Amino acid sequence: MLRSDCHRTPVDELRRVFRVLGDVDLDPCADVDPKQQFARESWTDRGNRPWGKRRVFLNPPYSRLAMWVPLCARPDQGPVIALIPPSTGTAYWHSAIFGAAQAVCFFRGRLAFRDSDTDEPAGQNRYDSAAVLWGADSATYQRFWYEYGGEVGKVVVP
To answer: Please, which of 4, 56, 103, 127 could form a disulfide with 80 given CB 3.0 to 4.6 Å?
Structure first.
């Protein structure tokens, strides 16, 4: 079982994000270790600042999903990909995903996260995962479908 809700995104998943977005301009939920930061700009203070039209990827702490997920759905930004558990009964899923996202990939199997302190395997992940896309142009939207469909999981339009 994961010991905390702050964990590093698996490398394979980051590669997939780069293939969809190209460079990532912003990670608003960045790891505090600068060696683990991959975006052009990384915020480790968890501040709620405007993201603008940057290419954003985030793997938010699961204890703060109700705060982070609605920020992804703001209409003045994009594209944004968030890696989150598919908690489809929550209010934020109904408003920010079912009401605003362009596409969702429900992963087949569970991701193997890394511990944010030791970079060792974080242990058994007890959550399913979903990658959610907002604010993408047509080319980014198509790359999302290509990269996430098939072997990775099932992509749906919410």
So the answer is: 56
